[in-house]
Amino acid sequence: MSSLSRELVFLILQFLDEEKFRETVHKLEQESGFFFNMKYFEEEVHNGNWDEVEKYLSGFTKVDDNRYSMKIFFEIRKQKYLEALDKHDRSKAVEILVKDLKVFSSFNEELFKEITQLLTLDNFRENEQLSKYGDTKSARTIMLVELKKLIEANPLFRDKLQFPILKNSRLRTLINQSLNWQHQLCKSPKPNPDIKTLFVDHSCGQGQANGSLAPSPSNNPLLGSLPKIAGFPPLGAHGPFQPASAPVPTPLAGWMSNPSNVSHSSISGGGIGLSVPSSTESSVIRWGSSTGVTMGDEPLVHVPNDEDTDEGEAFGSTDERDSGGGVNRKE
Q: What is the distance, to the nearest Å, from the Cα of residue 168 to the centroid of all Cα atoms in its chain?
């Protein structure tokens, strides 16, 4: 997709958000893969909408794309499994174990066996490594902190966590400028023309919705920037698209979740597991971060793919990325 087409998607996203088409906004974010809405992701995690959480993530990464992605999906599915156990919903827990967690057994068979054995306990907190598991709300909050760090460190999310800075109603403004250009082709331009449709070009003729079609600039790729006609007024107060006021450009309110300046050198490539970190524990992310069992520091079994290297460095060697801007977002 060309750069301009990509920018058009952002303009449509802004328009949909301003018009409050919430579900459509997030569907387009997911399908385009251009902007990962961290605020929306946080809301879905807090609400435990796991199917939507994974569906939204799927627009940006898959389980086996790289180690960061694998950790993200593992943490989500592990939390989902523990919540089913906490509700004593054994059938649901077994379903999650078979459909969602089985895929990780090829990377750590012992861990998968230990997770399976939790089914035999009346309370999974009897497992020493899960003894600090609190309630569902606190567990989701702890997990989310680590998911955000993993997402920010994941190269597949690079440049997708910040929405471009746009003036309000940018798409409407561009349409308004187009209508102004079309109206100035009329023999006697009016200060307040009656625009009835956007489906055809505007003109001042009779007999058609907007009169006879005016020549469109899009039909002539050689047409350069048009000279401004001095004194030509913008579409008046009765036109459907008014020129937007020119506020100081600010981030799109409610859309952007500014990535924190996380030192991604602390992101560990350690093995998947189930341990509960204390509030004073270091920010090193382990596979069992929020709710569950770490199996020591054994390395994650390598999944070969093109994302595993970054300028010749082994994947997970993030010690020098902060200084080089490898995961920093453009402001």
A: 21
Q: Are the C-beta atoms of residues 100 and 80 closer than 8 Å to each other?
A: yes
Helix (H) or strand (E) holding 309: strand 309-310
Q: Name the maximum alpha-carbon separation found in the chain.
A: 84
Q: Give the residue from 218, 221, 182 showing the smallest Cα distance to 198.
A: 182
Handedness of CA 204, 208, 212, 218 (dihedral sign): positive
At 86, list the tokens.
């906490």
Note the helical H segments in the chain: 3-18, 22-32, 38-46, 50-57, 67-86, 90-96, 109-117, 136-153, 170-183, 321-324
**Per-residue pLDDT tens for 191-202?**
888 888 999 988
Q: Which residue is listed with tokens 């794309």? A: 65
CA–chain centroid gap for 128, Å, is 36
Measured CA to CA, the distance from residue 87 to residue 93 in angstroms comes to 9
Could you say which DSSP state residue 279 is in? T
* Phi, psi of 310, rounded to the nearest 5 degrees: -135, 100
**pLDDT tens, position by position, 95-152:** 999 999 999 999 899 999 999 999 999 999 999 999 999 999 999 999 999 999 999 9
Determine the Cα–Cα distance for residues 187 and 189; give it in Å rounded to an integer: 6
Burial class (CB in 10 A: 0-12, 13-18, 19+), 151: buried
DSSP 8-state code for residue 283: S
Question: How far, in whole angstroms, is CA 28 from its chain's centroid?
Answer: 10
